Fold this sequence. Notes:
This protein is of the alpha+beta class. The protein is built from 16 helices and 16 strands. The strands form 4 sheets. Strands 2-6-7-10-1-11-12-13-14 form a 9-stranded mixed sheet. The structure holds adenosine-5'-diphosphate, magnesium ion and zinc ion (ZN). Zinc ion binds near residues 20, 37, 38, 40 and 41.
Amino acid sequence: MAFETVIGLEIHAQLKTESKIFCACSTQFGQEPNQNTCEVCLGLPGTLPVLNKLAVEYAVKAGLATHCQIATKSVFARKNYFYPDLPKGYQISQLERPLCEHGYQDIETSQGTKRVGITRIHMEEDAGKLLHEHPQTRASGASWVDLNRAGTPLVEIVSEPDMRSAEEAVAYLKQIRNIVRYINICDGNMEEGSLRCDANVSIRPVGQKEFGTRTELKNINSFKNVEKAILYEVERQKDVIESGGTIVQETRLWDADKNVSKSMRSKEEANDYRYFPDPDLLPLVISQESIDKIQAALPELQVAKAKRFVSDYGLSDTDAKNLTQSQGLANFFENAAKIYGDGKQVSNWLLSEVLRELNTANIEIEDSPLTPENLAALLKLVDEGVISRKIAKEIFPKVFAGEAPHAVVESQGLKQVSDTGSLEPIIDQIIADNPTEAERFRGGDQKLMGFFVGQVMKQTQGQANPKLVNELIRKKLS
Ligand code: ADP
Ligand code: MG
Ligand code: ZN
């Protein structure tokens, strides 16, 4: 039987505010356990939450950037459950009246453009963390609780079950990550957990209208694992159905080391959580005027930017898409292109040499010492014939590390030899040393030009101007 895959994603994005969503505690990562806590986020009785205004603004930004309608009135609700990392015994979230609804994102896949519906984006608080593997907790034979993360603001972005393959799911997730980074509300770091994704997966016989029963896959911390976890789950569900079984609605945990998923618990329903409006928080009311203001301040997003790069700088679609991967890279490109005067060359360098150095150093371009001015200056040195392209590539690591191209060329004596006076004696000597080759060249064997140029380059350590060398050899051997 042929099956169709159906996928919906729930993406949690940690908002980049300095303080928590309902108290003034810091959200700084990597502090001593329980240092970033107070009565409110520890859930002590009698405390009251106060909503972080910036977190609301960030959530509105997320909604607007994904074409959602923003509710001028939304309501916080308590989602009740017991777990040691949740001191209040409930998580403050939104259920019936979320902040954002009815959005969409267009994604590009090998099948073309596809629209994925966004059901809702709501605000909520993160829970704390249990330390099972910490050396101290191990020694004590117990799990310890770190509540530094408790109360960190999150948005949960819930998609419609619109995706039909692991490829589409990954493309959608990448797009959402790109957007939250562009609008600067989340750093998008999946390994550190600031962007987390749960994948809901079901299959149905091709042609059937009703959806099959879904399972929810948790604990997926990279794009690669999203793909692997979905492909694994689809095969598992096929096996169950083809051997006469039925799929149970459950939450499964992805094990990235073993490449398998394991059943964690049977799926709970919203009713199980005894949701009710949080009596400690007023409904969240936002004026249309503030929403419009936030909308007006949204930056140009990747899709629009890439289109503009194609028309303004004559780049290919692929190059434009790669350059707009991150806003930092795109800004660097535009600055360097303006200084240098041509986008194509700058784009070629950015997508090859620069990306290679960034990957090796494992940093973003914003954090690298390379400046648009220095990249443009390096390209100009090549255009002016001061250095060859080959030398430019050789000294690039130094320029990447912050040195000015002129200074590197000066101090290493790398100036291209472009004067006839110093090249002629070298060429004469080479011709004298290779009479047979010279004879064959005179006789019409043009292929030997490469041999002669190579000899000159060898003698000049690659610093001879190749164009001039060509001319001189031709003149002398004609
Ligand atoms: P819950 O919190 O119970 O997981 P949500 O409504 O928040 O429920 O999320 C449900 C997610 O599951 C959505 O992303 C939705 O698109 C997806 N989904 C719903 N039904 C199916 C299905 N049959 N197959 C795959 N995904 C589904
Ligand atoms: Mg869920
Ligand atoms: Zn606190």
